[in-house]
Amino acid sequence: MTGDGQIVVRVASTDKGADLLAKAGIDIRSSLSAGATHAGVYITPANGVKFIRRSSTNGASTSTTSTVSGAATPIWLKLVRSGNTISSYRSANGTAWTLVGSQTLTLGQTVYVGLAVSSHQAAKAIGATFDNVSIGPIS
Q1: Less crowded by CB within 10 Å, the N or C end of the chain?
Q2: Can you give the pTM of this predicted structure?
Q3: What's CA 137's distance to the chain center, in Å?
Q4: How many Å apart are CA 53 and CA 129, to the nearest integer?
Q5: Coil, strand or helix at 73
Q6: Rounded distance, CA 11 to CA 87, Å?
């Protein structure tokens, strides 16, 4: 994605029995390198919705948790890039959005956006089902 824009997705389901710190969601990254500057919003089995970001290449990640009573899939997630600000949102219906958190990041004009899944265990794979994916201008 070049310039301002957003990515929206509905996380329809995730593998049951996954590690409590596993996550599925969306991410905006400066590059495809493992330590890239990035921001993402994810649903987790134990911690509701998390906004996780790394403000410098190979730096430490920080997170904000949006505790949602009964947070589970299906859930809608959205990341909005406006200038150097990335804002993350969650929604039960894809219409009424709740801000999870925002962060100023230097990412460059062109960024990578996409779906993300992590088992939180290097030797174990998990799956997630996504639908209603859209990438485009801020709405």
Answers
A1: C
A2: 0.93
A3: 17
A4: 23
A5: coil
A6: 18
CA–CA separation, 48 and 67 (whole Å) = 5
Structure tokens at 8: 């929206």
The number of beta carbons lying within 10 Å of the beta carbon of residue 129 is: 13
Q: How far is 16 from 139, CA to CA, in rounded Å? A: 33
Residue whose pair of structure tokens reads 């998390």 in the numeric block: 50
| Residues contacting residue 16 through CB under 8 Å, at least 6 positions apart | none
- DSSP category for residue 91: E
Burial of 15 (0-12, 13-18, 19+ CB in 10 A): middle
Domains for the chain: give ranges and CATH numbers. 5-136 (2.60.120.200)
Peptide linkage before 74 cis (omega within 30 of 0):
yes
Beta carbons of 112 and 132 less than 8 angstroms apart: no
DSSP conformation letters of 35-65: T--EEEEEEETTTEEEEEEESSTT--EEEEE
pLDDT per position as a tens digit, 104-136: 999 999 999 999 999 988 888 889 999 999 999
